[in-house]
């Protein structure tokens, strides 16, 4: 069925029971017993399965007791304002692990929205869900062209990570804005670079030799600079 996604593992399943619409639970008997109060109060259908059956349907190497079928989240662009705080925009981030880690970064730094261009990994891919470590419940992910997003949020600063830009550690970030993270191999596309208002770069260390940074790592560094607590 369309509009559904899978989630695995004890920790995230517990969060899902509180924060998402669960369609069905497939779990081992002891997990069902431990969570029967929540399951029955919300009238969630469930199927008790064995460890062997769980391994047969799981995408994980070492499944952990439970697999949930959930409804995808509905995000409405008209309710979104970027006039306060920051949001991320991902330009063709294709690796699901990177995508999930970026969601986790956003969650850690209190960034509520992650927007995605065409060509990004599916935010409901099982690897994205697992790598997000529960961030998928708190960070809203919306697929939308950057130009369209900026039409609805005129005059906001748009920062982009490029190889030749202002030193990230020397700029004075605005109080709000959009931070664009480029594709793992090609960086930010020329089309999107034309929409940037500020180009920034993460300077290489004194003895650094790597050609570039992983996209998820770069997003974490940028978020740490832009979202540092007041007084630090």
Query: What is the strand content?
Result: 15-25%
CATH superfamily of the largest domain: SPOUT methyltransferase, trefoil knot domain
Beta strands, count: 10
Radius of gyration: 20 Å
Q: What structural category do the secondary elements indicate?
A: alpha/beta
**End-to-end distance, in Å?**
48 Å
Q: Largest beta sheet, briefly?
A: 6 strands, parallel
What report would you give on this structure?
There is one protein chain. With 232 residues, this protein is of the alpha/beta class. The chain has two domains: 68 residues, 60s Ribosomal Protein L30, Chain: A; 150 residues, Alpha/beta knot. Helix content is 31%, strand content 23%. It is built from nine helices and ten strands. Strands 7-6-5-9-8-10 form a six-stranded parallel β-sheet, with helices on one face. A four-stranded mixed β-sheet has the order 1-4-2-3. Helix 5 packs parallel to helix 6.
